[in-house]
Amino acid sequence: MFKKYFKNVIMLVSIISYLAAEINVYTHRHYDSDKILFKKFTDMYGIEVNVIKGSADQLIQRLQSEGKNSPADILLTVDAGRLVRAKNMGLLEAVSSKTLTKNVPEKMRDSENHWFGLSVRARVIAYAKDRIKESQLSTYEDLADPKWRGKIVVRSSNNIYNQSLMASLINENGADNALEWAKSVRKNMARKPRGNDRDQARAVASGVADLAIINTYYLGLLANSSDKADREVAEKLNIFFPNQNGRGTHINVSGAAVTKSSKNKKEAIKFLEFLTDKKNQRIFSEANYEYPLDYNNSKSKIHLKWGRFKADNIDLSILGENNSEAVKIFDLAGWE
Amino acid sequence: MKRAYKYFKKELLSDNNVWNTLSILVSLIIFSPILLIILNITGESNNWLHIKENLLFNYVFSTLYLVIGVGIISTVIGVGCAWFVTYYNFSGRKYIEWLLILPMTIPTYIAAYSYYDILEIFNPFFNWCRVNIGLEETIMIENILIYFIVIMLFSFVLYPYVYLSSKASLTIQGSRAIEAAKTLGIPTNQLLWKVIIPIIRPGIIAGLSLVVMETLNDYAAVEYFGVSTLTIGIFRSWFGMYDMNSAIRLSFFLITFVFIVLAFEKILRKGAKYDGKGGSSTLERIEIRGYKKLPVILFCLTPLLLGFFIPVGRLFSWMLGHNVSMNDFNLLSVTLNTLGISLASSVLIVLIAFFIIFSKNYFNKDSLRKLSHLAILGYSMPGAIIAIGILKLNSTINGFISFMLIGSISGLIFSYVVRFLAVSWQPIDSSMEKLGSNINKASRTLNVSPQKSLIHLNYPILKKSLLIACLIVFIDISKELPLTLILRPFNFDTLSTLTYDLISQAQFFQSSVPSLMIICISLPAIVLINRQVDKGV
Description:
The complex is a heterodimer of chains A (336) and B (537).
Chain A: H1 2-20, E1 22-27, H2 32-45, E2 48-53, H3 56-66, E3 74-77, H4 80-88, H5 98-103, E4 116-128, E5 152-153, H6 160-173, H7 175-188, H8 197-205, E6 211-215, H9 216-223, H10 228-236, E7 237-240, E8 251-258, H11 265-276, H12 278-288, E9 291-292, H13 301-306, H14 317-321, H15 323-333
Parallel strand pairs in A: 1-2, 1-3, 5-6
Antiparallel strand pairs in A: 3-8, 4-6, 4-7, 4-8, 4-9
Chain B: H1 2-13, H2 18-39, H3 48-54, H4 56-87, E1 88-89, H5 93-99, H6 108-114, H7 123-132, H8 135-184, H9 188-217, H10 220-225, H11 230-240, H12 244-270, E2 286-287, H13 293-321, H14 331-363, H15 366-375, H16 383-400, H17 409-445, H18 450-479, H19 482-487, H20 495-504, H21 508-535
Parallel strand pairs in B: 1-2
């Protein structure tokens, strides 16, 4: 009788703990790919994924203000720089997981395992097929050449993707050269920076400029849009990976970390392992056209079309460390 | 020091009562996140010199151009339309009169996105300019055009604030003034400049200050069009340079703008105090017939078309033309979230405002009069800065007890109170000054208790203002984005966060659905506001 009772209690407890299994995610990513992945994770492990979406900077601020009482288990961002910042603020937990170190290449994770990359985005040159030949293009540095006067469009330097690109240029060429570069590129712009990366693609398609600096997946989104006008824009453009004969194309990762305050560390680590798993990596490229961590072996149709590329080997933490200086250089160059 | 002590002793300790103390307490609680921001103004900042030398000038002037431009255009539209629908009669006037408020339902960021490709129309022209006039000149022309477009865009969705407030003053004070002026023999063509404008000026400025604050608060629209305002600067130093202290300093420049406008209002108000006894206009509207009515109708329809029907039309065409699946997001629950939290917060905000304003008026205490001003500072700061204040308050509380202010519905509502108390304050306070002061003086003399005075005397005469205040706050909250985005609980979406989310993914077509829903839930509020304003407040 007692045994039976005991058994029931155990069952009840296990049911409750099963129901209670959940992780709380603060995320800057607002893509369909994530919705699919989170649902798949819940289906597989029975762990609910609760989400607050917002800008990474504000989420980090919130995390800091909540301190050890924060309900968050995971911080997800669209660049490495913010993760570096959160780490420096002491908000992230070092994670030791063999699966993670196996899944995530060394240069795409924190040296002390505070954060891990999930997907790769390359910042490339999109050019008008009908006006520009691929042979005319070479490096980011070359965009400063006066031959491109009035031919370049790029979004505002408020954007983190431009800030990270600048951070990598500071690392490579030094702050003074980076400033000269920004001044010259600013002079070469066909118009004042405005709009998002898609708008830059549109501007090239409509003849405002010949080149745009954009992230690859934006062109993927345009090419697969439900809007005919978007698809026509994508038709007119090609992608060029700069600096292939040198350090390689600038990349960044969208990444994630377990928070120091996490009360569900085991589940949170499982979540990261799940997202970096080869089978699930596919979803980043299928639903959002981002590159998987193993970017040169992506099976996505559009990635195969764009071809393999060599990526800049820079330690991604440097992008975060140079971010503030990058913004100042943009200011000095008058790049709004 | 001694004087200060004496002052507080007199104000707070002697002749004290629950009403006063509670009001002061509530005001101070609402002020606390703002105080935490103010305390940071002297905080260390490595980037301030850089900002001051390279950016500040530009930020201030972009903001100035924008504010002045939007101020002028929205005043011309708002006052012009109010003037026409109040004093003239033409076919369709009755409908136009209330339709003109509709653009108020559209948040500036949604208006901006609905016009996202407007500059593309000019691409052939710019391409021509680049070849024939020169690159630099083209960029300059484009820059001017961008300012023009952004100013128009803001004006066409924000003018209803001016329209509503000037219509209300025209209906009541204007009509009586006109009658008087006519008796005195002032010619009709001089009426507008000599009589009407001076008399409704406080009304115009009250509306205008809301327009200015909404303009200053915008981030998404100016970011998209590449106009570097102070708000852009705030975000840039906070997020780009990781320098919250610089961001806070910049926000003080914003507050200065707001104070200039508010001080202006106060000065003008001082010279113009009326006993504003209600009652509708007895003035007969002037009938306009034939071709003469065309320019009038055109004047009233243009803002309506550009500020409402074109954006809404585009949203509709996106929704219908792209087979947006409603199953992609849980529209019903998101709508209920928005309705619920907007309704609960707006009622609470109006109750708080009414309580404090009543206590201030009934007891006429200097301390409360001054301290209550602190509680309405929240509206002069951008939502994102208020969010910093709330986060700081949260970590301060957390240092003492393990209590989470943020991440719950009640925390979110508290942040709305901090931000929007001022919106409800204005209509209630001005009605109280007009209608309640004498009653409260009499109540005190006749020893009518504050409870009785509040419920039986003040509430009935202020009912309409309370309702209007509640409705305006409701509309504001249902559109609110920055606070909700950062302070909300898990898995909690409102229509505006959903819209933002979809726009961030550049899913313009899908975003049309929640955008339209925001407009839909504000519509009944708009109709009600119009009805109340018509009856006269």
